[in-house]
Amino acid sequence: MKNRWLFALAILGLVAGLVSAYYYGITKKPLPPRFTPAENPYAKGVYANGIIESYQSHGENINIFPEVSGTVTQILVTDGAKVSQGAPLLLIDDSVQRATVEQQKAQADAALALLRELKAQPRLENLRVSKAQVVSAAANLKTARDSLDKVKKSYQMNPKSVSKDQMDSAMNAFLVAQANLGVAQKQYELTKAGAWIYDIQNQQHLYEALTKTYESGKALLVKYTIRAPVDGVVLAVKAAVGSFVYPQGIYGTYTQGYNPVIIMGYSQPYLEVRCYIDEILVPRLPPPDQMKAQMLIRGTNNHIPLEFERIQPYVTPKIELSNQRTERVDVRVLPVIFRFTPPKDLNIYPGMLVDVYVETK
Fold first, then answer.
1. How many angstroms separate the CA atoms of 273 and 60, rounded?
2. Is domain 62-93+225-265 classified as CATH 1.10.510.10?
3. Which of 195-209, 314-328, 346-360 is modeled with the greatest confidence?
4. Is the separation of the CB atoms in 84 and 229 below 8 Å?
5. How many whole angstroms from its chain centre is CA 199?
6. Gyration radius from the chain CA atoms
7. If you classify domain 45-55+268-359 with CATH, what class do you get?
8. Which CATH number applies to 122-194?
9. 108-123: string of b/e by CB count within 10 Å (b at 16+)?
């Protein structure tokens, strides 16, 4: 009886093993992809990573950095806003620089006032005072001369009527009055001549130096308002009111590095895509006038034809397009730029990563 039970259990175990082996041996169908993977549209073509940028004849997107440091007090634009050249974008606290400029202007104004005073000499009132001093000195000289004549006549009539001391005193008074008249006349001529030419020149140079200092300070004050360098579109505003910015940019919370305060692009009916082609594939590229390429938008089946724009003829180390950091691999790439007209029924923005295929020889 016991052997029969053991035999039955063995058979059940064998059947269970065969069923399990059959069930787990069935090949399951893979899940369909959420979107069709990129396929090479050309019989012979090379693949490249690309990043979309605003269209421009040279360079990349317009990265705006402040020329001064300070706290952001006001942001006058929003992401996606269209602005004209010279339009204010962002204001930085300029209270200290504004006070400095006002002080420099006051110093320049004071120097100019003194320069005008020197050029306006002689002053009529000073000239009149100097003339009156000459008249007074002449009157004193006449009085001294009359006194001396009287003493001399008295001495001629009776030598004993005038002492030698009286004679010397009268003579000395005459000589002093004569000298005072000469001094008064020289002082009148000096006053009449006006300011010395060297004093005017020195004051002129001082005024010019202070004026240039004021103009320099005023030019620096203008830098506290960041303005649009060109007509274009604001792609991104990295700063916030109250944040501190440097000439190196603004510290990024997520990138842990310094970023442009504002990123702008040109307002054009088309965009451009910058793709990086491996240096090994560069010899396979056709001449620029025969180059054909297509761009595939990730997550869609859209193929957009590209028009060759230019090549930057300088092979550089490969970079990660997502964060612009150099990879730790010895791979070098050639930047090739194409342009395209974005479809109206598809949202495409600068900064998107795309797949690019270039037809080869």
1. 10
2. no
3. 195-209
4. no
5. 40
6. 48
7. mainly beta
8. 1.10.287
9. beebbeebeebeebbe
8 A C-beta contact, residue 71 and residue 244: yes
Structure-token pair, residue 256: 């842990």
- pLDDT tens-digit map of 29-69: 776 666 566 677 888 888 888 998 888 777 778 899 999 99
Q: Please report the beta strands in 214-259, taking only residues with DSSP state E, as ranges in sequence order.
A: 225-227, 232-237, 244-245, 250-251, 258-259
Nearest to 304 by CA among 353, 354, 268, 361: 354
Domain locations along the chain: 45-55+268-359, 62-93+225-265, 99-118+200-221, 122-194
Partners of residue 51 on adjacent β-strands: 274, 353
User: What's the whole-number mean pLDDT along residues 149-168?
Assistant: 84
Strands (DSSP E) along the chain, which ranges?
Answer: 45-54, 62-64, 70-75, 82-83, 88-92, 225-227, 232-237, 244-245, 250-251, 258-259, 262-266, 271-278, 293-297, 303-311, 316-317, 332-340, 353-359
What are the structure tokens assigned to 173, written together? Answer: 């008074």
What angle do the packed helices 164-193 and 124-157 form, to 10 degrees?
160
**Amino acid residing at 270:** Y
Task: Supply 338's token pair.
Answer: 């194409």
Spatial contact of 296 and 355, defined as CB atoms under 8 Å apart: yes
Tokens coding 175: 């000589």
Burial of residue 340 (CB within 10 Å: 0-12, 13-18, 19+) is buried
Could you tell me the CA-to-CA distances from 57 to 166, 182, 214, 290 in Å, in that order? 104, 81, 38, 20
SS3 78: coil
pLDDT at 146 over 70: yes
Handedness of CA 80, 86, 92, 93 (dihedral sign): negative
